[in-house]
Amino acid sequence: MHLDGYDQTDLITGKGPSQRHEVFYFAESTLGAVRIDDFKYRLTDQPNGWFGATVKVDWPILVNIRLDPFGRTGLGQSLFAKDWWAYEFWRYVFLQQEMGKAAQTFLDFPPMQKGASFNLEALKEELDKKMASQAAR
Description:
Elements: H1 9-13, E1 22-27, E2 30-36, E3 39-45, E4 55-64, H2 81-88, H3 90-108, H4 120-136
Antiparallel strand pairs: 1-2, 2-3, 3-4
């Protein structure tokens, strides 16, 4: 759990819009994606679907989720990729600035608990410790 300091009272009471313009998607301590308004920057990818392996990408995969809500097209599939690089590359600098602001919230509001782990190796390690503790008694 991480508190980031946004006051969403107006949104919850129906008196105004959300104060949040960005959403950070984490898997434990790994940042997988960032959404800023209509754009989603994927920092990891799962090319073989939800149950497939996670791959870290060389640079964020950028998708306008209003134009492509399922995020199926990437920059490499566009005929206008060179125009995009000329006119839209600044969005990566914007991402860097927003991530810097988010990192500051982790200092101001530290995470309260570690995420759940379903790693079988960690489970085995925990069971070994409990069995050793039982045997020592």
